[in-house]
Predict the 3D structure of the following.
Amino acid sequence: MANTAKTLFDKVWDSHVVERLDDGTCVLYIDRHLVHEVTSPQAFEGLRLAGRAVRRPDATIAVVDHNIQTSDRSQGIAEPESRIQVETLEANVAEFGVPYFPVRDARQGIVHIIGPEQGISLPGMTIVCGDSHTSTHGAMGALAFGIGTSEVEHVLATQTLLQKPAKNMLVQVDGELPLGCTAKDIVLAIIGEIGTAGGTGHVIEYAGEAIRELDMAGRMTICNMSIEAGARAGMIAPDDTTFAYIQGRPYAPKGEAFDRAVEYWRTLPSDPGAQYDRVVTLHASEIAPMVTWGTSPETVLPITGAVPDPASVADEAARVQMQRMLDYMALTPGQELASIPVDVVFIGSCTNGRIEDIRAAAQVARGKHVAPGVRAMVVPGSGLVKQQAEAEGLDRVMLDAGFEWREAGCSMCLGMNPDKLKPGQRCASTSNRNFEGRQGPGGRTHLLSPAMAAAAAVTGRLTDVREMA
Amino acid sequence: MQPFTVLTGIAAPLPLANVDTDKIIPARFLKTIKRTGLGVHLFDTLRFDGNGAERPDFVLNTEPYRHAEVLIAHENFGCGSSREHAPWALLDFGIRCVIAPSFADIFHTNCFKNGILPIALPREVCDQLMEDARMGGNARLTIDLSRQVVVRPNGEEIPFAVDALRRQMLLNGLDEIGQTMQRGPAIDAYETRLRQQAPWMPGINAT
Ligand code: SF4
């Protein structure tokens, strides 16, 4: 008898197939489309040239995040190109009738923060955005993935995409996470284990005790970096933690509708005996606070480790590439990671820009001070995260400790706004990519958790947060 | 979209793995609202120094590779962001085909939408093609999409796989959105079902 047990991914996929074409490609229905200013102008232009409309404005939400400055916004955006991109989005949403959270609205923020925050991203949905970290929304138990601008146009016009099903991969994280370790350390450990191409062609489902125990913020951090593991998307089965998070959010179903939704959402978790094309198991107890040393997210080690030696790498191309990374990062083999001094600390991004992340950073920074010569900044993921943090007095904690307290946006995660590293500067960053020049031309990035970032700010070097009193 | 049928051109060797989209086109060049004109920024940090001068040792700054139409690279080409500016920059420079052992998913899809053919071949084969590419202008590669073969300068033919639908779209330069819109009735029917089965799913209005 054929195995009819389905994975979470299979269920969400199957329920969204409009039509299956001859070569296995599916016309896949899209429930939610998030739009931002960088990857949408050409898509709207395409619609305009072809005389097409947006099929479902009520399934679409637009926001600016990438270009927007995180300092005072009362004077608008100074840089002309950034301003044009934002103005273009505003003109497009007006012309096509797309719902939009404007810059001065407290709901403005990083697109992957606001979707879950507003209850726009829900379990069992298909969610897309012209942005690879759309995988974040998979933490709700949704199938959420990044698309290019041509596909943005395709979804705007048809509310569908042409896709072939991905393969199923299970990443099981068993056991309990040690003290001082966070979701960020789990996902960095996973990427270190499977590599940046480890998930290519797959949708990763994260499961196991250590995942179940995470709050929604932690689950979002994990799913967020699925793309750094090469996967098309990451998903976590919805459970009571998920439902409690959703209940009462502005765009979530209410009352009886909510109960009906939960009834459906409870059918989504993978069936017992469901088959995965690949299974990877990690033991949470073996995870330590992690930090990257190179220019790819897979170049990651526990903070207790040392910079690796290219001489120990057999494959020539790999050896050359490692040497190139060390040259770029200005590191020497054998150097202890916990001895590396930093110039800048960035706490924010769609990976770690939620209230829980700011609380974790504040817990380390409270009553301490940023080391001399270090610039440390906190950029909340949304206007509402910022408000919440201020209501809890966390802005004071961070300001008193010498951190900058800024407006919501992508900021130094990718340096499209004025928040950039200067050439040669070294940054401890809670974001997701440490590519060459990602945070500014010539800038050097070490990825880590918010608590680890706060610790680095205080000591002025990469630091094992477990040693902070 | 420009159709892709048969391409004969110079192939540039780029023996790097994990060439990410920030490397293909850094974020600071994403502020455009157009699809064209990005070729001058392709591989910006590899191609130019801090003062904007060409780095003489970078392959695309040397003859004949300034005229390359094919790129040969190592594993996981195009990893990183979803930015379609990466294929736009390649296309604007003149690259119509990228050959590598593997590609990141979103980049791979984005190529097809822009008339660029990404071909995945085993590493050993890519290494051979890399050697061909190093011979420069006398060693052009031919990529024949209808026959699904890469023809080496020595005449050897290497078959490659490609999705039937994507192949069809590329060969004919079809407008994918127009094609999907012809399936309007099926989409209408799906939406009707959706309203019945998931009435709890609310619409968005931002006010
Ligand atoms: S915070 Fe960074 S990774 Fe996230 S959407 Fe913004 S730029 Fe992309």
In short: The longest strand of chain B covers residues 6-9.
